[in-house]
Write a structure and sequence with these properties.
This protein has about 200 residues and is an alpha+beta fold. The chain has a single domain (about 30-40, about 60-190), classed as Mannose-Binding Protein A, Chain A. It has helices at about 5-15, 90-100, 125, and strands at about 20, 35, 40-45, 65, 70-75, 80, 150-160, 165-170, 175-180, 190. Strands 1-9-8-7 form a four-stranded antiparallel sheet. Strands 4-5-6-10 form a four-stranded antiparallel sheet, with no helix packed on it. It has a two-stranded antiparallel ribbon with strand order 2-3. The longest helix has 12 residues, at about 5-15. The chain starts with a helix and ends in a 10-residue tail after the last strand.
Length: about 200
Amino acid sequence: MKMRPLYLTILLISAMPVVVLAGDRESTVLREAQTTDVTKGRASIAAQGSGPEDKGKVPAKRYTDKGDGTIRDNLTGLIWLKNANCFGAKTWTEALAACGKLAEGDCGLADSSSVGDWRLPTVKELQSLIDFGSYDPALPKGHPFTEVQSSAYWSATEYANEDNYAWHVYTYFGGVTTNIKSGHYYVWPVRGNARCGSGCD
């Protein structure tokens, strides 16, 4: 009799693909995963993470403000736009276009970047910013970003089961879910490639 409710609970949970929450802080570090690079229309290793040789190596200073409108994540190696709300809320397609057109002179940038250098991050890259010990926003205490919205940010990662949906990350508490691409969510551009551990191409 006691096994039946447990069985039903597991069945119900497995049928709910709505929200995905990471279980601990380590899971926010990018893992090796093949994703689709929608800006180039090809499969690529777009969100690489620390390999076994890097496990447990957390930099003493997580972020470096480069003084040119960008922030370097010393854990992943990614360069993020300091202003996390330069574009306001956009549809997914508008978000991709806005990131692709971003260059020096826009959004407070003085980094010599050109059109095409910036992109919409993958869902794993966005998740790498999350600190589950914080909320509103769920970012590490003392982070150097400005204009962070405690709301949803689009990722470039499309939802595999539905062409009209893509993944986004809620910076209020760190949750991850999908929504229709015509919805309006915030945009946080990134450039560069995340650090790659062993076994990367």
